[in-house]
Specification:
The chain is an alpha/beta fold. It is 38% helix and 14% strand. It is built from 16 helices and 13 strands. The strands form 2 sheets. It has an 11-stranded mixed sheet with strand order 1-3-2-6-8-7-12-13-11-9-10, sandwiched between helices. Strands 4-5 form a two-stranded antiparallel ribbon. Strand 2, helix 4 and strand 3 form a beta-alpha-beta unit. Helix 9 packs across helix 13. The longest helix is centred in the last third of the chain and has 22 residues. It is globular. The two termini are 19 Å apart.
């Protein structure tokens, strides 16, 4: 049993710890052994914190022995995307400019998980500053998909997603700005939850686009994601954008019965099944929708005509926010500096700025800074940025009206399965189009969930579920009901048999 502990879900591991079948130290040892065995092939981690994990596991076992366990996540090993500030481990955002940067404070999400007794295994890989859809833009190298090592794991949370597919821990924390949890979850055959903006504090999360970024969960099951969401959610006085909306008992709301979706209205919009979607992926998603119908759901045809403008609006608004947020990486405030490393390199302040960014930032980050500065510049602000904000408002209103007619929307996560490494990295427009089905959730300020629903060419396909603001319990209920009667999420990646 001990050699297979890494295969457990959060729910199973938590129950096993309570029953005394194994300890957190044993659970953590099994996960670290799995990482050591396979991560050389996957590259899911930027940094494995083995000593920290062992120490936290020992502390968890001591609490449990004293009858003072902190809750269901006490002693559960997990991974943290490398964009969360932690005093216990360097935070780099997978960028050369922050190589070995040590935060003087903890992100709220990490603090909450520490207070819950969870065990941090390490920091996982991401596209640099989360800018990308394939985790090919990382200073620490590409993360490979455990289903096929020649294909991408998705992005920007490719590291967390691959870590779940390879069973490097029980759950992972990632960020979703335009699909960066759901798309890699779909590519890697795991569960990915993007809560409503404001549901989880962003304090201590290195920002890409502050009005879009949202912390979420990657896990092996929907029920696991619900367990973690309960712990990390809630208002935070350190984050003015966090919501005071009460945190719900998400796990206890998931019912296991014969017709769990009776009375649930599932909307299907033709706009999510348009040109560019692989017919084989569409077929699997529609079969998934039929499974929901068999469980009692009512399928309702709806239309969101302005959805087609979401991707264009997103790639105006997000670079604009990127250009603002990235201004702090200037060679002066913190991080790497061309002047500090080579005093003769900079003869002026502008030299320090431009040469530091030129040396220590990757191509995609620089591309988005330039694009954002352009759309915010005099003469273009009204033409691009303001118009994109208006589109954002229209799409949000359209979603709100739709969720008066249905409880949940169902759609594909991505137009196709994970593509080959190197196939799109030199074509920014092709890469941006990978987000076409996930971006609307972020633009519309709603919640989204990805669950595995089948395979095309041996690669996982994701079913996307969406719900209105702070209605995460709706997509969790539908997702859990789907996994109750399907086995897609239980299929092992081929890498596990090597």
């Amino acid at each position: 049993m001990s050699e297979n502990l890494h295969l457990l879900t959060v729910e199973e591991a938590s129950a096993g710890l309570v029953a005394g079948h194994f300890t957190s130290v044993e659970l953590t040892k099994a996960c670290l052994a799995q990482i050591e065995k396979l991560d050389g092939k996957v590259n899911a981690f930027v940094r494995v914190e083995a000593d920290l994990a062992r120490r936290q596991a020992v502390e968890s076992d001591a609490r449990r022995a004293a009858g003072k366990a902190l809750g269901p996540l006490d002693g559960i090993p997990y991974n943290l995307k490398d964009v969360y500030a932690t005093k216990d481990s360097p935070t780099t955002a997978s960028s050369h400019i922050l190589e070995d940067w040590q935060a003087p404070y903890d992100a709220t999400v990490y603090r909450k998980l520490c207070e819950a007794g969870a065990v941090l295994l390490g920091k996982t890989n991401t596209d640099e500053f989360t800018m990308g859809g394939s985790t090919e833009n990382s200073y620490y190298g590409v993360t490979r998909n455990p289903w096929n090592l020649e294909r991408v794991a998705g992005g920007s949370s490719g590291g967390p997603a691959a870590s779940m597919a390879a069973h490097f821990g029980m759950f992972a924390i990632g960020t979703d700005t335009g699909g960066s949890i759901r798309q890699p979850a779909g590519f890697c055959g795991v569960t990915g939850l993007r809560p409503t903006y404001g549901r989880v504090s962003r304090f201590g999360e290195l920002p890409m686009a502050s009005s879009f970024d949202q912390t979420g969960v990657l896990a092996k099951t929907v029920r696991d994601a619900a367990m973690v969401l309960e712990v990390i959610s809630g208002v935070d006085p350190l984050d003015a954008t966090s919501s005071p909306e009460p945190v719900k008992p998400y796990l206890s709301l998931l019912k296991d019965n014969e017709k769990p979706l009776k009375g649930v209205r599932v909307g299907v919009a033709a706009e999510f099944f348009g040109e560019g979607v692989d017919p084989r992926c569409e077929q699997l998603v529609r079969e998934g929708i039929e499974v929901l119908k068999a469980q009692g759901a009512e399928i309702v045809e709806v239309s969101l005509p302005h959805l087609r403008y979401a991707i264009a609006a997103y790639y105006i608004l997000v670079p604009a926010e990127v250009s603002s947020n990235m201004a702090r990486y200037d060679g002066i405030h913190f991080g790497q500096s061309i002047e500090r490393n080579d005093p003769k390199a900079g003869t002026s302040l502008n030299d320090v700025y431009s040469k530091t960014r030129g040396e220590y930032l990757g191509a995609e980050v620089k591309r988005r800074i330039i694009l954002g500065a352009h759309v915010l510049s005099s003469g273009y602000y009204d033409q691009y940025y303001n118009e994109a904000e208006r589109v954002r408002t229209v799409i949000a209103q359209e979603f709100a009206e739709t969720f008066e007619k249905v409880d949940v929307l169902a759609a594909p996560v991505s137009p196709a399965v994970a593509f080959k490494i190197g196939e799109k990295v030199s074509d920014p427009l092709a890469m941006y189009k990978e987000d076409v089905l996930t971006v609307p959730v972020n633009v519309g300020v709603i919640s989204g969930l990805s669950v595995p629903c089948g395979f095309v060419d041996g690669m996982p396909v994701g079913l996307q579920l969406m719900a209105g603001k702070f209605r995460e319990e709706e997509i969790l209920k539908v997702g859990a009901a789907y996994q109750q009667v399907t086995e897609w999420h239980k299929q092992p990646a081929p890498l596990l048999n090597q």
